Amino acid sequence: MALKIIAREKDDVVVLDLDGRIVLGEESGTFRETVKGLLAEGKKKIVLNMSNVTQIDSSGLGTLVAAHSSAKAAGASLRLCNLGARFNELLQVTKLYTVFDVSETEADAVRDLAKAASAS
What is the pLDDT along the chain (120 residues), one digit of tens a residue? Predict the structure, then answer.
C-alpha cells in the first residue's frame, strides 16, 4: 500500500496524516518531498501523525531522521504523535527516541509546538 499524506493546518501548525508504509522506494520519496515543500514554504511547525502507519523499515527510519535534520536546519520543529506500541518500541530499541520530539496525541503535539514557540 502506497503512503498517503494528507496535510492540514491547525492554528499555525501543519499536521501531516501519514497512512500506509514508510519504506524504501516511492513512499520515502513522497514523504521527503512533502516535508521539503513545507519547509520551502516557510512552515516552521510540523506534526507527523503516525497513527495509520502500518509499516516502517530502516529506510523509512532514515527518511524520518533526514526530515528531522532538514527541519532543524531550516529553523523548524518536527514532532511525532500517535506512535502506537510497535513504533514506540522501535524508537526505543534504535535509540531514536532521543532524536525525535514525541507527543502522545495530536492535540498534545500541537500544544507542545505552540508552547515551544512562545518560550523562544
Answer: 689 999 999 889 999 999 999 999 998 999 999 999 999 999 999 999 999 999 999 999 999 999 999 999 999 999 999 998 889 999 999 999 999 999 999 999 999 998 876 766
| Domain range annotation of the chain | 4-119
Q: Grid cell 492535540 — which residue?
A: 107
Residue with cell string 495530536: 106
User: What superfamily would CATH give domain 4-119?
Assistant: STAS domain (3.30.750.24)
Q: What are phi and psi of 67, to 5 degrees?
A: -65, -40
Residue 76 phi, psi dihedral angles, 5° rounding: -105, 165
Radius of gyration for the alpha carbons in the chain, expressed in angstroms and rounded: 13
Numbers of helices and strands, H then E, in the chain: 4, 5
